[in-house]
Design goal:
Mean pLDDT: 89
Strand content: 25-35%
Radius of gyration: 21 Å
CATH topology of the largest domain: Rossmann fold
Largest sheet: 8 strands, mixed
CATH architecture of the largest domain: 3-Layer(aba) Sandwich
Structural class: alpha/beta
Number of helices: 8
CATH class of the largest domain: Alpha Beta
Oligomer: single chain
CATH superfamily of the largest domain: HUPs
Order of helices and strands: EEHEEHEHEEEEEEHEHEHEHEEH
Helix content: 25-40%
Distance between the termini: 57 Å
Shape: elongated
Low-confidence stretches: none
């Protein structure tokens, strides 16, 4: 068995997804610890140009296929490329990443971990950290002795920070694979989500609103601030349940798990159900009229005030500085 670290790399419209860049860097870091190579499994439109991911750390890239069908359609090619070698297969915790990872686990009978917020190689073995029980505990998991290899690890967005360098990756095509039922899958219908919803899990800046926003119109000032910061708008469950924003923007136990560089919570109390979805944010800024709101206990900066007074002034100041 080799110590190579594989990663799933999705391409769309000729470009790699941000998750592909993140996992290329992550795989390179783990491969350096294990003594193996970082090997990308590229699929989707433009995956033939995957040599460019060498700049993000990939040593080799294996093209699974360039079609625009469902991700599970590449399961046979992925299984053929992985075979029985390698230490891990890193998969992004995105809809396509989850589908392809699950198909790979089923086809090869591989163990799986995740979704995780940290991965490392220690003592020659794989160790993965995940939050459990609504974020109350952090668990560290590893494959059991004698488990099939590699281990499939579902990785949350922003777990690894993309680091661009020089060089290109060697590119090959996946070995010929026999047809299987996954290959017959087709996309019957698709619906495009709003820009903010699509980018929420990958956003480096999130401006989120809760019950304190008060209405759908109230989210307008949050969107303006998010636009100035180059970020996305998110929400608590209370705001989504009220119909002020679509459920695709919900963050928390029953919503999405995010890990931005900056999380700005406006009118959000910070109950544990919401906290579990954003607690790994690098920096948390909270704006709330209630000085006793739970979010103040873990925010890096807690502004006690009316969000409708604070947010517009913050947006105005950012615009002024950008124009200076």
């Amino acid at each position: 068995m080799s110590n190579d670290v594989f990663f799933l790399a999705e391409f769309s419209e000729g470009k790699p997804a941000r998750s592909a860049q993140e996992l290329a860097t992550g795989a390179a870091q783990l491969a350096a610890q294990s003594g193996g190579a970082a090997v990308g499994l590229a699929y989707g439109e433009g995956s033939g140009e995957s040599a460019g991911l060498g700049a993000w750390g990939a040593n080799r890239m294996v093209i699974l296929g360039e079609g625009n069908g469902p991700a599970v359609g590449f399961a046979a090619a992925a299984a053929s490329a992985v075979g029985e070698g390698g230490l891990a297969v890193l998969a992004p915790a995105t809809p396509n990443g989850r589908d392809l990872a699950a198909a790979l686990v089923g086809k090869l009978g591989l163990p799986a971990l995740g979704p995780v917020r940290a991965v490392r190689v220690e003592g020659g073995g794989l160790h993965a950290e995940a939050s459990t029980l609504q974020g109350t505990f952090v668990t560290v998991s590893e494959p059991t002795d004698g488990a099939p290899a590699p281990t499939v690890v579902l990785v949350l967005a922003n777990t690894f920070t993309p680091e661009e360098g020089g060089g290109t990756a060697e590119v090959t095509s996946a070995p010929e694979a026999a047809a299987d039922p996954f290959g017959a899958a087709t996309i019957v219908e698709s619906h495009a989500e709003g820009k903010a919803a699509v980018n929420l899990e990958e956003a480096t800046v999130i401006v989120a609103g809760g019950r304190g926003v008060g209405s759908a119109d109230g989210f307008g000032i949050l969107q303006e601030l998010a636009d100035e910061l180059g970020g996305a708008v998110g929400s608590s469950r209370a705001a989504a349940d009220a119909g002020w924003v679509p459920y695709q923007l919900q963050i928390g136990q029953t919503g999405k798990v995010v890990k931005p560089a900056l999380y700005l919570g406006c009118g959000i109390s910070g109950a544990i159900q919401h906290r579990v979805g954003m607690q790994t944010s690098e920096n948390v800024v909270a704006i709330n009229k209630d000085p006793d709101a739970p979010i103040g206990e873990f925010a890096d900066l807690f502004v006690v005030g009316d969000l409708f007074a604070v947010v517009p002034k913050l947006t105005q100041e950012i615009r002024r500085r950008k124009g200076a």
